[in-house]
Amino acid sequence: MNSEMHFSEWVGRTETSMDCVDESRAAKMFATLDMPCPQPICDQVLPNLWHWMFFAPVVPFGELGNDGHPERGGFLPPVDLPRRMWAGGRLEFFRQIEVGNKIRRVSSIKDIVAKKGRTGEMVFVTVAHQILDDHGVLINEEQDIVYRELVPPDASTPSYKTSDESSDFSAEIFPNPVTLFRYSALTFNGHRIHYDRKYCFEEEGYPGLVFHGPLTATYLAQLLVAQVESVELTGFSFRAIKPLFDNHAFTVHGREQEPGVYNLWATDYLGHIAMEARATCKR
């Protein structure tokens, strides 16, 4: 049973995680994203959204499900639907994370909503995170997780929209299995859709390895910082619309909507919007 009432006892649950912003992981993320690593790296600040490589649950192999995710239950509710995806999120940035610091994350289940969609039953779980160091709050974040049914093989192909905006700046991204593997390793993400091609084809019906949604969001934020001089993000929200795969290039775009506010989006090789984002900034 996947009803809001069934999972109501999970709303309000909290957990606290600790981590250290070590030089090794920071340097490896620079390498994964093909960015020059500053030297010395200690005391440097991390680019926005790189905090996603911290606080991963350390789950023994015997407690993983067939998809590579931890078995259902525990902090997150035991939703009995096969697909789990990171659907989007909202973030406020107060200070940047420094390499070498100890950080902690306080998480709570904010909301659980059951819906019926085009492809069947869905359950949305919103998790609130607060990330802190010894000097106070660094980031406030809300993360949207969606659980859904597998799409039947005979299901009609959904129609996806294209952007009616022209971009002020853009960049083409060329996915490859090595980048996906490295990002999975750095985030300790065992989800097989990102590295197991046979599993993607045979179990979930995907045409290729799935590009991580958070990594797409990271490329959008990275595009903005690279193209707009001396910009500092104060807020970022994003929504995943359709998956991207490793067998086609995709494009990230940005456009200034008003002073300090930017619309960002990613399009697949057909021009369909795969992710939409909005960033607020100061200079």
Set down the secondary structure blueprint.
Blueprint: E1 14-20, H1 23-32, E2 83-93, E3 102-117, E4 120-133, E5 136-148, E6 169-173, H2 177-186, H3 197-202, H4 213-227, E7 232-240, E8 250-258, E9 261-267, E10 273-282
Antiparallel strand pairs: 1-3, 2-5, 2-7, 3-4, 4-5, 6-8, 7-10, 8-9, 9-10
Helix pairs in contact: 1-2
Share of β-strand residues: 35-45%
CATH superfamily: Hotdog Thioesterase
Enumerate how many helices there are, as a single number: 4
CATH architecture classification: Roll
Number of strands: 10
> Strand pairing plus helix content: what structural class?
alpha+beta
Poorly predicted sequence stretches spanning 5 or more consecutive residues:
none
Order of helices and strands: EHEEEEEHHHEEEE
Average pLDDT: 92
How far apart the termini lie comes to 49 Å
**Strand arrangement, major sheet:** 1-3-4-5-2-7-10-9-8-6
Reading off the top of the CATH hierarchy, the class is best stated as Alpha Beta
Largest sheet: number of strands, sense, barrel closure = 10 strands, antiparallel
CATH topology: Thiol Ester Dehydrase, Chain A
Q: Assign an overall shape.
A: globular
Helix content: 10-25%
Whole-number radius of gyration?
19 Å
Q: Can you describe this structure?
A:
The chain has a ten-stranded antiparallel β-sheet, covered by helices on one side. It is globular and about 50 Å long. It has one domain: Thiol Ester Dehydrase, Chain A, CATH 3.10.129.10. By secondary structure, the chain is α+β, with helices and mostly antiparallel strands. It is built from four helices and ten strands, in the order E-H-E-E-E-E-E-H-H-H-E-E-E-E. Helix 1 packs antiparallel against helix 2. The relative contact order is 0.16.
